[in-house]
Design brief:
This protein is α+β, with helices and mostly antiparallel strands and 384 residues long. The chain has helices at residues 7-15, 38-45, 48-62, 66-78, 84-89, 94-113, 134-138, 187-204, 308-319, 332-337, and strands at 28-29, 82-83, 124-128, 144-147, 157-161, 167-171, 180-185, 224-234, 248-255, 261-268, 277-278, 282-286, 294-301, 349-358, 363-366, 372-381. The strands form three sheets. Strands 1-6-5-4-7-3-2 form a seven-stranded mixed sheet. Strands 8, 11, 12, 15 and 16 form a five-stranded antiparallel sheet that branches.
C-alpha cells in the first residue's frame, strides 16, 4: 500500500468501521424471544457488543430476585464501577451465584473476540450510566440494565431491559429519570492487554524488535535519547456521557535500525477526558530503536470491539510491503489504511496523528486532524 494515500481517505475508512445500531420503535417492547434467527445469533454472540447485550439481558432478568437486586444496588452505589464476575462470585443470593458461570463464559467470549486470550481475565464490569442516578437508585427506583451502546453510528437511542426482560428505548444524549446499569468493558485493562498482543505479534514479524546494542549509536554508559510528552490536550475523544473515560493509546511508527518499518505501542491511561490538559512527562519515542531521526505518532481510542490480534496482523501485512528507500518517509497513512472497516461494531476511533516528529522537536506540535496538540522536548535518559 502506498504511503502517499491521502489521510482523508484513511479517515473515511476508519469512520465507516462502525456498524449501525438500529433504534427500536416504541417505549416498551417485548423481550427477545429465544435466541432469534441463527444468522443473527451467530453474528451477535461472537462480538463484544453482542456478548454485552446478552449479559445485560440475563442480569436484568436476574434482578427479579429482590435479595440479589439489593446486592447489586449496594455495589453500584459504593463504587463507580465493579467487576461483574467478582460481584456474582461473591454473591450471597443464590441467583447471583447461578449467574456467575454465565458471566465467566461471557468474559472468555469477550477476550476471544478482542484477540486477547484467557490470560486477560475478567473484563466485564457494571456501573451506573450516570452519577446523577445514584439518588433514585438509593431511594428504591427499579433499575434497567443495558449494554454500553455504540457512540459512532449516529443512533439517538439505545436499548435497556427491565427485570421482566422487556426492552425499553432510551435517549443517548441525556440521562433518564430511571436508573440504568451499564454492562461495559474494563477498557484500561483491555488496552493494556491488547497492546501486549500487538507488541508480541509485530515482534514475531520482525517489525518491533529492539535495536541491537552494537547498532544503537549510543554507548551503554551514555544512556538513550528520547522524545518526552510534557503536556497534551485533546478536543473530541469520541466519548458520550454514558461511556465514561476514554481509553487512549498511541502507535509510534518509523524505520528500525534494520531498515524495516516498526511500530511501538504507548499506553496512555491518564488521557481520558476531552478539553483537559495533562502533564505526563511520558516518553513517546526511544530514538535508539530508530534508523532515522524522524517518527510518526497515531493516537487512537478503543471503543470496545477492537480485535487486537487481527489489528496487529493487518498492520504487519501492510508495513512488510514498505521498503526502506534510504530516506525517512511517513507511515501514518499506511498504518491507518491497514485497519479494515468490517472488524468492529464499535470501532477504535482515530483521534489524532503527528507527522515527522524529530529527535530535536521541541515545543507545541499541533495534530494533523486539528483535534489536539502536545508539547514535546528532547529528553536524555542516562544510565544508572
Amino acid at each position: 500500500m502506498s504511503t502517499s494515500t491521502p489521510l482523508r481517505t484513511a479517515l473515511i475508512g476508519v469512520a465507516l468501521a462502525a456498524t449501525a445500531l438500529v433504534p427500536l420503535q416504541g417505549t416498551a417492547l417485548a423481550a427477545p424471544s429465544g435466541t432469534g434467527t441463527a444468522a443473527t445469533t451467530a453474528s451477535a454472540s461472537s462480538s463484544v457488543s453482542g456478548i454485552e447485550d446478552a449479559t445485560a439481558l440475563a442480569l436484568a432478568r436476574s434482578l427479579a430476585d429482590p435479595d440479589w437486586s439489593r446486592e447489586v444496588r449496594r455495589a453500584a452505589l459504593a463504587a463507580d464501577s465493579v467487576g461483574l464476575g467478582t460481584l456474582a462470585d461473591d454473591a450471597t443470593a443464590s441467583t447471583g451465584r447461578k449467574l456467575a458461570a454465565r458471566i465467566t463464559a461471557a468474559d472468555r467470549g469477550v477476550a476471544a473476540a478482542k484477540g486477547l486470550g484467557r490470560g486477560a481475565g475478567s473484563l466485564l464490569r457494571l456501573g451506573l450510566a450516570d452519577a446523577s442516578m445514584k439518588g433514585r437508585l438509593a431511594s428504591g427506583a427499579a433499575p434497567l440494565v443495558a449494554a454500553a451502546p455504540s457512540d459512532d453510528d449516529g443512533a439517538a437511542t439505545f436499548t435497556a431491559y427491565d427485570s421482566r426482560g422487556a426492552a425499553h428505548e432510551l435517549p443517548l444524549d441525556s440521562a433518564t429519570d430511571r436508573p440504568v446499569y451499564l454492562v461495559d468493558i474494563d477498557g484500561a485493562k483491555a488496552v493494556a492487554e491488547g497492546l501486549k498482543v500487538i507488541d508480541k505479534t509485530l515482534e514475531s514479524k520482525g517489525l518491533g524488535l529492539p535495536a541491537p546494542s552494537a547498532g544503537a549509536g549510543l554507548s551503554a554508559a551514555s544512556g538513550i535519547d528520547t522524545t518526552r510528552i510534557d503536556s497534551v490536550r485533546l478536543g473530541d475523544v469520541e466519548e458520550p456521557f454514558f461511556k465514561g473515560d476514554a481509553e487512549i493509546f498511541t502507535l509510534v511508527t518509523g524505520f528500525g535500525k534494520d531498515g524495516k518499518p516498526r511500530v511501538d505501542t504507548v499506553e496512555m491511561p491518564y488521557l481520558n477526558k476531552e478539553d483537559t490538559t495533562y502533564y505526563p512527562g511520558q516518553v513517546l519515542v526511544n530514538w535508539s530503536d530508530y534508523k532515522y531521526d524522524m517518527a510518526d505518532a497515531v493516537m487512537m481510542e478503543d471503543d470496545g470491539d477492537t480485535d487486537y490480534q487481527a489489528l496487529a496482523k493487518a498492520i504487519a501485512a501492510v508495513l512488510l510491503t514498505i521498503a526502506d528507500q534510504g530516506a525517512y518517509i511517513p507511515l501514518v497513512d499506511a498504518l491507518l489504511n491497514a485497519i479494515p472497516t468490517n472488524w468492529w461494531t464499535d470501532d477504535p476511533d482515530y483521534v489524532e496523528s503527528w507527522y515527522t516528529l524529530a529527535r530535536s522537536s521541541s515545543g507545541q506540535r499541533n495534530g494533523a486532524a486539528g483535534n489536539g496538540w502536545m508539547t514535546v522536548s528532547p529528553y536524555h535518559v542516562p544510565e544508572l
